[in-house]
Design brief:
Number of strands: 15
Shape: globular
Structural class: alpha/beta
Oligomer: single chain
Order of helices and strands: EEHEHEEEHEEEHEHEEHEHEHEH
Helix content: 10-25%
Distance between the termini: 25 Å
Radius of gyration: 18 Å
Strand content: 15-25%
Length: 303
């Protein structure tokens, strides 16, 4: 998970009724098709989707030696390890370096930005016009602070958020400038508000062409192109790589991981995940501080 307007990524809801699935994002009108939820075949997973904050690492701390070793063992065995995060391209690159991933694929901004790991550059960006969402959200929350991702450049924002933007440009702009260009991700944070207050007001919100996810720990949300999610992006990648759907594994801890967990043949939630995320997964592994990712991967991949 990643700082959204400086906070952690999370949440799963909509500004429209679209959900992740197959085909173009706009064509999606229902939940992803049901997937097999059994244990992996003896050959082990071939496509492994790993969230970052709260899963691979505790936000602000390095990835443990044990988790790094397990991920590298999976790569050495030929598995496609795909870092799948709400982080931006800029804040994902250090994670890829820390894991020692030199090639392959990574999915950032909740699936909206697909990175070629070897080049460290995007190969696909699912952008949308943020203006209608900003207008609708401002009508509900006049004090909301907004930020948009400028892929590979940094962040434009209407005010200071609760987190840090240590990588790339951080430019304060007005709402008109913020709305002037397409973006893969719009973040909103409600100072002095509560998550409960925000979610109650959002029940009536409808913005065509956009969907949103909310965080676990505060009044913030992330808006993206309709139908784009981690699960949607992973399915596009799975098909492109020719990986059987029964050979997919996903590990995560946030609300924005729910589509990814539904997508995977075998889904694993971290012990630190919210209750409803844990209940969705096929199994629950250890806490991020207990190397829960390594506990799972070491079944098939021994460092």
């Amino acid at each position: 998970m990643e700082p959204a307007v400086g906070s952690r990524e999370g949440g799963d809801a909509q500004l429209t009724s679209a959900r992740a699935g197959l085909g173009t994002p706009e064509s999606v009108t229902g939940a992803p098709p049901p997937r097999h939820n059994g244990l992996m075949a003896s050959g082990g997973p071939q496509l492994i989707a790993l969230d970052v904050d709260g899963t691979l690492l505790d936000t602000g701390t390095p990835i443990s030696t044990r988790v790094v070793a397990a991920v590298r063992a999976a790569v050495a065995a030929g598995a496609h390890v795909v870092v799948t995060t709400g982080r931006t391209l800029l804040t994902t690159r250090p994670v890829l370096t820390e894991l020692g991933l030199l090639e392959g694929h990574a999915l950032c901004s909740n699936g909206a930005v697909h990175i070629d790991v070897a080049r460290g550059e995007p190969v696909a960006i699912q952008s949308f016009d943020p203006a209608p969402a900003i207008m609708a959200l401002r009508a509900l929350f006049p004090a909301m602070i907004f930020a948009v991702e400028k892929v590979g450049i940094g962040t434009w924002a209407t005010g200071a958020g609760p987190g840090e933007f240590s990588l790339g440009e951080y430019l304060l702009v007005d709402h008109h400038a913020l709305s002037s260009e397409p973006t893969p991700r719009l973040n909103g944070w409600l100072p002095d508000g509560s998550l409960e207050e925000m979610l109650l007001a959002l029940r009536s919100l409808r913005v065509p062409g956009a969907s949103w996810v909310h965080g676990e720990y505060g009044p913030w949300l992330t808006v993206s192109r309709q139908g784009v999610s981690k699960g949607w992006a992973l399915e596009q990648l799975r098909v492109a790589l020719g990986v059987p759907d029964e050979a997919t594994l996903a590990i995560g801890d946030g609300y924005n991981d729910r589509d990814m967990l539904r997508w995977a043949a075998h889904s694993v939630a971290m012990a630190n995940a919210p209750t409803d995320v844990r209940e969705l997964a096929d199994e629950v592994t250890g806490h991020v501080l207990e190397d829960g990712v390594a506990t799972v991967l070491e079944r098939w991949f021994r460092p």
